[in-house]
Amino acid sequence: MKLRFIGGASTVTGSCYGLEINELKFLVECGMRQGSGADEANRRPLPVPVSGLDYIFVTHAHIDHSGLLPRAVKDGFKGSIIATPATRDLLEPMLYDSAAIQESDADWATKKRLRLGAPPMEPLYTSDDVANLLTRFDLRPYGKVFHLGGGVKYRFIDAGHILGSAALEIWFQDSEREKKIVFSGDIGKKGNPIIRDPDAAGDADYVVMESTYGNRSHRPLNESIDELATAIKTTFKRGGNVYIPSFAVGRTQDLLYIINNLVREGRLYRIDVYLDSPLAEEVTRVYAGHPECFDEDARRFSARSQDYAMRLHYVRSVEESMALNRLRGGSIIIAGSGMCDGGRIRHHLKHNLWRPECGVIFVGYQASSTLGRKIVDGAKTVNILGEEILVKAQIYTINGFSAHADRKELLEWLSSFADSPQVFIVHGEDAAAEALGSAIKERYGFTTRRPKDGDVVEL
Ligand SMILES: [Zn+2]
Ligand SMILES: [Zn+2]
């Protein structure tokens, strides 16, 4: 089996791996790159011709693992996409949203280009490509082994990261024996709200291991919930609003669940929460439609009632979103994107980041060179939509809500591999990947390797 590291080997975004055995060719992940220079990278053709691919596996619906699927279809991919049913249902609103962004970005660029006499800009993909792609899914539940052909078998196991997320086990026939490679996908942490904890993979010869938080420890969820309650209360006391940049998938549903529990338990009064993201609203409905992925707590909640104790408002139109600027204090506004490099949160930050009474709560990973990262790193001013804005609001970073396992939990997940697998460390910035690599060597004695994009290894 030949394994090619196509994207996301030494960065957190753009995950993509190519596998080839005999006549069978497939990808694991088809992720979009994010952050600076991403646009150009996303437009570069894949190093393997997509028309020759038989399958694409997707471990979960986050765009950095799935966002280039419509482009693959556009470029002539004729095979099937293999994912869990919940992943497919999440991908539908997410990829349509992504296509709409691509189309409007291209429109905008085209206007500029035409004024210079340059040719128009084609969108990376369109909603037609997404519609086409949605007819191509092979849906597979957790825990069952399926045959891919050519002696290759596979199984999804629950990764406990977001709804439908999976790690992927693949067995293949070598000249002398059967071998196994495991793709960790993104590993969740134990006790994540709503969904179940990650399952352990059995033994393997190779593991392609994510390392997002390979050098960090998260605070326990309870402490993070306390921090959140305090940040909200102190911001309201100062007379400001709370702004939470949040990913539409996973984090937003966790936050709604947690804030609602705080109100139910009487720790917050019956506050107004504005979910300013039509995408997050759709995703919240997909979550509600997949109780088979829930843990026991969430199952009890959904069985009892779907009613919220907080006052939850879904904000749909742009006019409604702009009207939120009239709210001076006492409300929570959740909007995307999670790293502030797109979406409606940029408008809210532009209008409120300079107001010292407001609070901005970061609850997720901020990739380097994103607007979110600049704010978290303490920038005094930031450029938002072409304007320099003072950062005077209180900035809170609460990392215990991460849907990712921290260093300790990543190591724990690896404890089920008894047979000394070779571990490829991917999906992490340098410091995180290096720290996790040394910890794995020290704790388990496994051989570790940090591949780069473009590397090809024979398994
Ligand atoms: Zn993810
Ligand atoms: Zn990821």
Describe this protein's structure.
The protein is an alpha/beta fold and 459 residues long. It has two domains: 2-216 and 403-458, 4-Layer Sandwich (Metallo-beta-lactamase, Chain A), CATH 3.60.15.10; 221-401, Rossmann fold, CATH 3.40.50. The chain is 32% helix and 22% strand. It contains 14 helices and 22 strands. The protein is globular. The chain binds zinc ion (2 copies). One zinc ion (ZN) binds next to loops.
Class from secondary-structure proportions:
alpha/beta
- Give me the Rg, rounded: 22 Å
Number of helices: 14
Strand order, largest beta sheet? 6-5-4-3-2-1-22
What is the annotated CATH architecture of the largest domain? 4-Layer Sandwich
- Mind summarizing the main beta sheet? 7 strands, mixed
Within CATH, the superfamily of the largest domain carries the name Ribonuclease Z/Hydroxyacylglutathione hydrolase-like
> Tell me, what's the shape?
globular
* Beta-strand percent range: 15-25%
Bound molecules: zinc ion
Q: What does this entry show, briefly?
A:
32% of the residues lie in helices and 22% in strands. By secondary structure, it is an alpha/beta fold. A 7-stranded mixed sheet has the order 6-5-4-3-2-1-22.
Task: Write the topology of this structure.
Layout (H helix, E strand, L loop, with lengths): L1 E6 L8 E6 L2 E5 L9 H6 L11 E3 L5 H4 L2 H6 L5 E4 L1 H31 L11 H7 L3 E3 L6 E4 L2 E7 L7 E8 L4 E6 L22 E5 L10 H18 L3 E4 L5 H14 L7 E4 L2 H11 L7 H9 L6 E4 L3 H6 L7 E5 L9 H8 L6 E4 L8 H6 L4 E4 L2 E4 L3 E4 L9 H8 L7 E5 L3 H15 L2 E3 L6 E3 L1
Parallel strand pairs: 3-4, 4-5, 5-6, 10-11, 11-20, 12-15, 12-16, 13-14, 13-15, 16-19, 20-21
Antiparallel strand pairs: 1-2, 1-22, 2-3, 7-8, 8-9, 9-10, 17-18
Helix pairs in contact: 4-5, 4-8, 13-14
The structure holds zinc ion (ZN) (2 copies).
